[in-house]
Amino acid sequence: MNNRITQLFNIQYPIIQAGMIWASGWRLASAVSNAGGLGLIGSGSMSPEVLRVHIQKCKSATTNPFGVNIPLLYTGIEKHMEVVANENVPIVFTSAGNPATWTSQLKKHQIKVVHVVSSSRFAIKAEQAGCDAVVAEGFEAGGHNGKEETTTMVLVPLVCECVKIPVIAAGGIATGRQMLAAMVLGAEGVQIGSRFVASDEASSHISFKKAILKASEGDTILSMKKLTPVRMLKNKFFSEVQWAENKGAGVEELLQMLGKGRAKKGMFEGDLEEGELEIGQVSAMIKGIKPAAQILNEIWGDFTSALREPLSHPQK
What we know:
alpha/beta, TIM Barrel, 2 domains, 3-stranded antiparallel beta sheet, 11 strands
């Protein structure tokens, strides 16, 4: 496919693998890039030194473009920005913060910048800041999320109407038919996270991957809205957070419950009871752990099949 997203990133398919903490290391990013999509290294769970190693290993594993996702809500972000600039990373996706803070600095290094937004208001700010594209992420998505709880089907057309830069749809997308639906609404590409968590190359723990396969409708909930909203699988830790929120827990109490290592404990170390298990609603549709290239090829095949027969029902 040839459109503004494939041209912007110099990729074959307008499919971006989200940069997820504790899941998106160099193995996953390079596998997706080698398959014709855009792989992203998730820097949110990495120190600057670890990020540098992942970038260098990704360069060794693929000659195709790849990028780094940098959540802006963490401290010490300036060190991550130094690393991506010094390592000549061509593409950076920023999220969870003000795009005006770093976009111009990244552009000085000839880096293409994309910002993840949860509302048309922030999409306009990203365009004004000089971003090359935006990701319109609906609240179906896993991980950190928008407080507005706008769904992807509503958010994408709203964002497409208010900005001229390319729009990438995210949240609740795991199949080619869902990709086609997003593009009919005006998106020129899709960012997919949860489906790639359940891939061979994802660095997330195998127990977490298997828990995703068991998920059904209603098993993920958006929580911690007093902090930064995050969608998680229900487990013992989630129940404790929900109980605390229902009794009116404040920010300090929630921060104490969350701690520093809760996400690592769940997603990377595989503690399914005490850990934070970030994943999207679309986990209910994920039924197998597969190589990332196979996942991408299946999504693209499903997309092209649906494009030929958009009103047909998927084969069973």
